[in-house]
Amino acid sequence: MTQTKFENRYAIGPNEVKGFDTAQLRDAFLAANLMQNDTVNWIYTHYERFMVGGAVPVNETLTLATLDALKAEFFLSRRELGIINVGGKGTVTADGEAFELNYKDSLYLGSGNRHVTFQSSDAANPARFYLNSAPAHHSYSNKKVEFGGGKQLQMGSLKTSNERDINQSMINSVVETCQLQMGITCLKEGSVWNTMPAHQHDRRNEVYFYFEVQPEQAICHFMGEPTETRHIWVHNEQAVISPPWSIHSGCGTQNYSFIWGMAGENLDYSDMDFHAPDTLR
């Protein structure tokens, strides 16, 4: 039987965060242990009712089980799901339809899929499925997007230490969704800054999942209001939950990649309020 873990985190406003110490900040916003062997692991954030999770099938096939907190007959009864594989080759099966996912491939599953399973092709190199889920008002078609098969952007420069490739694998011009959007940003060698200038989007939350971070390296993730910033040190396969009122930006001790996932009432990827570096405090 699949082991499923669930954690409930209520939304926190900017005034409360001003008084948080390091431990409180990490407890509220850091997802440190999403990827656990033979487990489906979830955090329910209450920001846009967004859920962030991981599924690592090693010795068994894992099932996407419903949760008591969802009050639903099956997990995708009123939800949609985005999946990106950050491990070895694996297969996601949704109501009998199998999707083989290689490293960095993406899969969207629409509302209404009743039976979803996760399986690895090789237990010695298991798939590591990173999961985002948001409420859905409509059932859109399942769709796989191979890495590099979505919309591609090249941004930044080595001069400003932020040369990067943005792979928009799950945005509305690539995949029809209700509100979920996901993609992968890969920093080039010699570049360490992501998402600079920093920005907010008050009608969407966002979660950053950092990976390809070497064991001896780390990322400093910046959050908070533009004039009241805070930071969280992050390591490989850890995520930071970013409320709509918060900026989200990071700087690493080496180049790395991260998955961004967001949900809210606006599917316009470019709807952002930017804050220049010289205005941050």
Automatic annotation (TrEMBL):
Residues annotated to bind Zn(2+):
H199, H201, E206, H248
Q: Name one Pfam family in it.
A: KduI
**Which PANTHER family does UniProt cross-reference here?**
4-DEOXY-L-THREO-5-HEXOSULOSE-URONATE KETOL-ISOMERASE
The opening ranks of the lineage are: Bacteria, Pseudomonadati, Pseudomonadota, Gammaproteobacteria, Alteromonadales
HAMAP family xrefs:
KduI (MF_00687)
Give the similarity note. Belongs to the KduI family.
Name this polypeptide is given? 4-deoxy-L-threo-5-hexosulose-uronate ketol-isomerase
Does the record's keyword annotation contain Metal-binding?
yes
The UniProt record lists the EC number as: 5.3.1.17
